[in-house]
Every structure is written in structure tokens, then in C-alpha cells.
Amino acid sequence: MHIPDGFLNPKYSSGLLGLALGVLGYCFGKVMKAVTAVVPQRVMAAAGNALGNIQMGGKRVLTQMGEGKIHTMGVVAAWVFSAQMFNFPINSGTSGHLIGGVFASVLLGPFAGTIVIAVVLLIQSLLFADGGIMALGANIINMAVLGSLVSYYIFSGLKRIVPETLAIVFTSWLSVMMAAFACSLEIGLSGTISLPSVTTAMMRVHSIIGVAEALITLLLLKIYRKSDQS
Q1: Residue 60: what are its φ and ψ, rounded to 5°?
Q2: Quick one: which of 57, 129, 147, 200 could link to 101 by a disulfide (CB 3.0–4.6 Å)?
Q3: Rounded to an integer, what distance in angstroms lies between the CA atom of residue 218 and that of residue 79?
């Protein structure tokens, strides 16, 4: 699923990186508002103001709930990173591993979950060469934006009409399929591999990987929630 360098047209890589940065910037802004609060403070209006007018100003400070949120983001990132280290065999020498987008967004919400997956992808790219640096934008779009942000809203909608467990299972499987299709489209349009060939191969293999993603996500959520309550 991680696209290495050399597989994407440089124009696509640059465009996807710009898109990824824009989405992450938006998510970061949302998270900052959630973990901070404006504390009023008195400030002088302007230097040399003869009347000495005072205006009410304020600055954002981290709240106690915000500290807890950031701590939880770190814990979830560690869980995702650790779980992704384990590959499971599929067939013909291929293997898969957890994306973790649904796991992160269910626990943290769409914006924090997206940031967590993006940070994991960045660390994997820089330290473990798992996914190319030039392809980082594409990988973030595929696995963080589609796999976590978009998937959260699919999960949220499904949860209203079906049991949460079923919503988690289906959304986890779908998150893999969406990421695989986007990956296929990016590689195919770059001309590295023909679009029909890469799409057929990716969707076939990842339909199986998606089942494993769903089961692992469900298991991890149960373990995490149980440990969090104890």
C-alpha cells in the first residue's frame, strides 16, 4: 500500500503533497481549537496612547482535557505504529498490514485520527523507508485522509442504522479498498503500470487484506477500551 519513490509522476506527487498539507493544516486547526481555550487578559491598547485605553484580549492555552487528548493521540499513534510492524501473509508471497485509520478515528475523532496516521506514515517514510519521501503526499491522502478522515464519516453514518460493531467492520474493510483504489489510480495515471492491470491486482489482494484490517481493528478497539477502563 505504501507507494515508494519512482512510481508517481512528479506533478502528481507535488499536487498530492500540497493537497495533503492543506488537509492536515485544516485538521491541525480543528484539533488546536479542541485542546485549547481562550483565556482573557488585559493588554494596553497601543504604545503612547494618551488616554491609556485598555482592551480585552486573550490567548489560547492548553486545557486539562486538551492535555488528555494529546496524550491519547500519542498512545494511539504508538498502538498503530506497533500493529503495523506485523505483516500477515496473503498469497503468492504478498502480505499486508494494518492501516489503522478507522481505529484511530473511532477513538480520537476524524481530525486527530488523521493527524496520527499522517505522523505514523511520516516516521515510517523517514526512518524505515516504508513509502517514498516524494510519494509521502499520496500515501497520506490514501491512508490518512481516505483511510481515517473520510472513513470516520462513513462509520458515523453507518452507526446510526446498524450496530457499532458492524459499522466498524465494514468501514475498516472499505477504508482499505478506498486506499487501494486511490493508490491504483495514482500509479496508473502516472503511467508506471497500466491502470487496468494495477487496479485489478490491487483490488483483488486488498479485498482480502481489508478483511484482516476489519478483524484486527475490532480486536484492537476492544483491547484498548478494556485497558482504558481498567
Answers
A1: -85, 135
A2: 147
A3: 14
> Which pLDDT belongs to residue 37?
86
Sign of CA dihedral 203, 208, 214, 216: negative
Percent of the chain with pLDDT over 70: 88
The CA distance from 146 to 156, in Å, is 14
Which are the contacts of 212, defined by CB distance < 8 A and separation ≥ 6? 88, 96, 98
Amino acid code (one letter) for 78:
A
**179 CB burial (10 A radius; 0-12, 13-18, 19+):** buried
Which residue segments constitute the domains of the chain, with CATH numbers given?
10-229 (1.10.1760.20)
Dist. CA 154–CA 174, nearest whole Å: 9
Which amino acid is residue 4, in one-letter code?
P
Task: Please give the model's pTM, rounded to 2 decimal places.
Answer: 0.90
How, if at all, do strands 88-89 and 95-96 pair? antiparallel
- Torsion, Cα 104 110 116 122, to 10 degrees, reads 120
101-108 vs 164-190: helix axis angle to the nearest 10?
Answer: 130
DSSP 8-state secondary structure symbol assigned to residue 4: P
Q: In this predicted model, what pLDDT tens digit does every residue of 55-81 receive, in sequence order?
A: 555 677 888 999 999 999 999 999 999
Q: How far apart are CA 156 and CA 212, in angstroms?
A: 21
Helix and strand numbers, DSSP H then E, in the chain: 8, 4
Q: Cell numbers 467492520 correspond to what residue? A: 169
Task: Using the structure block, give the residue that is written with the C-alpha cell 505483516.
Answer: 87
Question: Cα–chain-centroid distance for residue 216?
Answer: 17
